[in-house]
Amino acid sequence: MTQAARLRELLGRDGMVVAPGAYDCITARLIERAGFDAVYMTGAGTAATLGYPDFGLVTMTEMAANAGRIAATIGLPVIADADTGYGNELNVVRTVRAYEAAGVAGLHLEDQVFPKKCGHLDDKEIVPRDDWLAKIRAAAAARRDPDFLVIARTDARAVAGLDEAVARGNAALDAGADMIFLEAPQTLDEVAAVPRLIRGPCLLNVVKGGKTPDIDLADAERMGYRLAILPGLLLKNIIGIGEKMLAELAATRRHPAPVRDMTVREMFQLSAADEWDALRTRFRS
């Protein structure tokens, strides 16, 4: 079974799939080790690892390369951020082919102008509806594996209101999208309304401190969401832990107590050290 087929099978079950965000292979392995069924490759996190804000500055090839490294490292389906598709319909076709070849199980394409910005920042701009729908049609036609998931993300709520965002979502389903990602509903009533108003599966983006109010994942599941992503969960907390450790080191000139005791060997095991050690002598006669 391909990872795309595996993701389809997961989404076909009762309940909601939860995919925490990974920005590299270590965070992806942590998610897998914790027992989650899928991983979300965060575009903001990927940009941060390259030294950029989430302003559409990372190229398609850089994004696909990171998604491919993550997909090759774990045994879970990877859903990846594909920003705006990096151009027009031609670029979208290339993007889908590159992500699919990298082993990704699905991606999402948004309707912001290029270069885009994080969906929970102010002053976003969106392209005309027809331009975005053409990209969705191109993405659906470009996939070689029919199980590859095309998720249509609309940022129209912040720019043109909830009604336009819902209309775009339903039009994207008609254009061939498999799931709708209506970014940043602004009240709990709006969060609850989205799965009722969209005529197909919905994704919820859970961003602590973002435009969308905090919501319990169990409540989101009861509302009817099929997939929840948590892009910043690990990134934000790793930054916070790093700042705390460095401040303590600077103040005390002593190695801070670890958050969790871990031997050097245990640290390397997170990067499959046991598997590689087994190859050291395997091929010797």
Labels describing this entry:
285 residues, TIM Barrel, 13% strand, 47% helix, single chain, 13 helices, alpha/beta
SSE topology:
Blueprint: H1 3-11, E1 17-22, H2 25-33, E2 39-41, H3 43-49, H4 60-73, E3 78-81, H5 89-101, E4 106-110, H6 129-142, E5 149-154, H7 156-160, H8 162-174, E6 179-182, H9 188-197, E7 202-205, H10 217-223, E8 227-230, H11 233-252, H12 264-269, H13 273-278
Parallel strand pairs: 1-2, 1-8, 2-3, 3-4, 4-5, 5-6, 6-7, 7-8
Helix pairs in contact: 4-5, 5-6
CATH topology: TIM Barrel
Q: N-to-C terminal Cα separation, in Å?
A: 35 Å
Tally of strands:
8
Helix proportion of residues, in percent?
A: 40-55%
Compute the average pLDDT: 95
- Find the CATH superfamily: Phosphoenolpyruvate-binding domains
Rg, nearest Å: 20 Å
Q: What's the CATH first level? A: Alpha Beta
Biggest sheet: strands, sense, closure?
A: 8 strands, parallel, barrel
Order of helices and strands: HEHEHHEHEHEHHEHEHEHHH
**What sort of overall outline do the alpha carbons produce when their principal axes are compared?**
globular
Q: List the uncertain runs.
A: none
- Tell me what portion of residues adopts beta-strand conformation: 5-15%
Number of domains: 1
Given helix and strand content, the structural type is alpha/beta
